[in-house]
Amino acid sequence: MMTGVTPDDPSAPRRRRRAPAAATPGDPAVPAPAVAAARVLVQALAALGVRDVVLAPGSRSAPLAYALADAARPDDERPAGAPALRLHVRIDERDAGFLALGLSKASAHVGDRGPVPARPVAVVTTSGTAVANLHPAVLEAHHAGLPLVVLTADRPHELRGTGANQTTEQVGIFGAAVRLAVDVPAPVGRPGEDRDLRRTVSRAVAAATGARTQDPGPVHLDLAFRDPLVPGDEPWPAPSDAGLTHVAARALPAEPAGLLTGTVPVVVDVLDQPADAGRPSRRARGPVPTVVVAGDGAGPAATRLAEANGWPLLAEPSSGARQGPTAIGAYRLLLADERLGGRTGRVVVLGRPTLTRPVQALLARPDVDVLVVAPRGADWPDAARNASQVLLDVPARMRQGRVGAPAGWLDAWRTADAAAQDVLAGALDAPEDGRRSRSGPRVSGWALARAVARASAPDDVLVVGSSSPVRDLDLVARWDLAPLVLANRGLAGIDGTVATATGVALALPRRRVRAYLGDLTFLHDVGGLLRGPAEPAVDLQIVVANDDGGSVFTTLEHGAPERADVFERVFATPHGVDVAALCAAYGVRHTRVVDTDGLLPALASPGTGTSVVEVRVDRTQRRNLAERLAAEVAAAVDKALSPGA
Ligand SMILES: Cc1ncc(C[n+]2csc(CCOP(=O)(O)OP(=O)(O)O)c2C)c(N)n1
Ligand SMILES: [Mg+2]
User: Fold this and answer.
1) 570 Cα–ligand 2 center, Å
2) Which candidate in 23, 503, 550, 622 could, as Cys together with 103 as Cys, close a disulfide (CB 3.0–4.6 Å)?
3) Alpha-carbon distance 197 to 494, whole Å?
4) Is it true that domain 14-224 has CATH number 3.40.30.10?
5) Which atom of ligand 1 is nearest to the CA of 518?
6) What CA–CA distance (Å, rounded) separates 585 from 236?
7) Whose CA is nearest to atom 17 of ligand 1?
8) How confident is residue 115, by pLDDT bands cut at 50, 70 and 90?
C-alpha cells in the first residue's frame, strides 16, 4: 500500500489544544523544521517500541543522524527530551539493512508467556543509490516477515525531477515488498505537523509489526528534508503523545474455536477420510501414516505435534523444532524408501520448507494429504500446489495426540535413521575424510557441519548461510536440545549473511553466536566485517567452509561430468582469495583449519570479538560422496527394515 501525506492533508487535526509556534528561520529557540521533525520522529519510534536503529552516513539524512547521535548518548549526557536508543553505524547500506534484519530476527523468542514477536528495527539512509542498497534486506524481510522500518531521506518535492544531485524516484521503490510506503513531505513547521508525523510513524510501526494483520514485514517512510539540516543549541521538544497511536495487536486464538469444540467439521473430516475417496476409509484402515515437515520458523509446536502422535519429525535446522526423539536427522535420504516416504499418507507442514528436493517431491504427491499450518500472514507455503487445507493452528485432536500413527510407524523411521547415521559416521570418520591432497589437507562439508552441530550447545546461536552449509547441517545435525538456529530463508540469498549474523550477535550479547557459511557467501558480504572504532564490539565466530567456490552446484544437474567444461567458470566460480589477508585488512582474527582434528578445538574457544575460522573443505569429491552416501544409506536402511533384521 502506498499513501502520500501532503502539507494540506485533510486528515490534519482541526482542533488543536496548543498550537506550537511555527518555526521562524534563525530563531535560536526553535530548531529548523527538518531538525525538529527528525527529533519528533525519533521520539515516536522509541515510544512505539523501537530499540535499535542502524544508520548509514549521508547529508540529506543529517537531521536524523544528529537526533540519533543524541539518543545514543549515555544517560547522563543525553539531552532532555531525547529518548534512549541503541545506534549502530555502518558505511554500506546493504549491510546496514541486513544488520537491522539480524537485530530484529534475533529479538523474537519464546518468553514465559509464549512467543514474543520480532521487534521493529529502523534503518536510516540518505537519498539516491543508498536507498536501493537496502533492497536485498527489504526483500528478505518481506519474505521472512520481519518488521524493518526503512527511513530514507529525500530531496523536497520541488527538487524532484529537476536533475538535482542524488535525487531519484524513491517513493515506491520497494514495490510490493513493503507493507506500507509513505511519501512524507518536507516539514515546514506548520501547526499540527508533529502530530501528523507521530500518526504516520504509528501507522508505519503497526504495519511493520503486523499488529492489525498478523503479517509483519518491512515498511518505508520516504522523508523529504529541506535545508537547513543542522541543529543549533535548541532544546529537544518535550516528548508528547499527541498523534501517537498504540495499535492493539490482533491476537490469534490459541485454538480456533471450531476445532476445539468440534463444531466445524471440515478439518476433522479430512483427518478421518482418505485423500483418495476411491480407497477404503482410513478409519477402517487405522491411522494414516503421517509425518511432520517443519520448515524455517516452524517452532516448538512442530516437535510437540510429532511427539504427541508418534509421528516422524522432518525438521530443517532453522525450524526451531529439530530436537528430541522424533527428529529424523537423515530424513532426506529416507524419503525414497517405500516403507517410509512411500508409505506416507499425510504430511502436516509447519513453517516454510525449502531445503530439499525429496521433501518437495513428497509434498507434491497426489496420494499424500498435505495440511499446511500457517498462523501468520496472508500467504502460506505450498510450492507444489497440492495442499488440501491451510489451517491457522494445529487441529486440537492432533495437538492432543488423538490422531496417532500405525503401529511401528515411528520406530521404522528411527531404525532407518540410526542405520543412516552409522553409514554417515563410517564415512565421515574414515581416514580419507580430512585427508591430505596436493593443495593441503581438507575436510568434507558434512564433517564440518557435524563438527559445527556438535560444538553448538543449547544456549548457543547458530546463523547458518544458504547453499551447502544449511543443507549439510540438515543431513547431519542431531540435537537432544537444539541451539537457536537462524537463517535467511526468506529468499535464501547468499548476500548479507555476515551482517545478519553481526546483528544477531549484537542483539544477543550474552549468548555465544556463531555463523557458519560458505566461502562465496562470506566473500559476497565480507564488507559486513567493516565496523568503525566507535561501534560496539561484536562477539561473533564466523566459520567459513572454504571450498574455493560454490559446491552446491556440483550436486545439481550442472555438476554432471558431461558439463565439466563450463562448470568451473560459470557455476563454481573459484576465486583463490587469501581469506587470512582479507581478515587482517578488517582487523579480524583468523584461524585456518585443515583437518578434522583441528576442527573441534578451533570451534570450541571463540574468545571475544569477531573471529574467522577458515576451514579448507573439499569440493571435488562432493558429488561422488553424496551419491555414494545415498546408495550406502539406502542399502543399510533396506537391511535394517527387512523382516528378521
Ligand atoms: C544473492 C545471491 N546470489 C546468487 C545466489 C545463487 N547461489 C546459491 S548457492 C551459491 C554458491 C554459494 O557458494 P558458497 O557460499 O561457497 O557455498 P557452497 O555451495 O560452496 O557450500 C550461489 C551463487 C544466491 N542464492 N543469492
Ligand atoms: Mg563454497
Assistant:
1) 14
2) 503
3) 37
4) no
5) 15
6) 41
7) 518
8) confident
